[in-house]
Design goal:
The chain has 83 residues and is α+β, with helices and mostly antiparallel strands. The chain is 42% helix and 27% strand. The chain has helices at 45-75, 78-81; strands at 5-8, 11-17, 24-28, 33-36, 42-43. The protein has a five-stranded antiparallel beta sheet. The longest helix has 31 residues, at 45-75.
């Protein structure tokens, strides 16, 4: 993943989004953590990556469950589909 950083005063604007709310993230040089301007999330780069990985895994699981449900429906008999 490529992240672009822009220095503005004593903060760095991150050309990325918050994994919690989708807001703009800023990097605070004094604390070495990212801060979301919308929801106030305050976390290190590792924690942000962990949150994103968890959200992505949950999304994949939901897609897999929908896919499996569709396959079950498709393979069922016509009588069962009408129920």
């Amino acid at each position: 993943m490529i992240i672009l950083l822009f220095a503005i005063n004593d903060a760095i604007t991150l050309a990325s989004y918050c994994p919690e709310c989708g807001g703009e993230l800023k990097f605070d040089l004094s604390s070495k953590n990212f801060i979301c301007k919308s929801c106030g999330l305050f976390a290190s780069r590792e924690k942000i990556d962990e949150i994103r990985d968890r959200a992505e895994a949950a999304n994949v699981d939901k897609r897999r469950m929908k896919h499996d449900d569709y396959l079950d429906w498709w393979q069922s008999s016509k009588k069962d589909k009408q129920k």
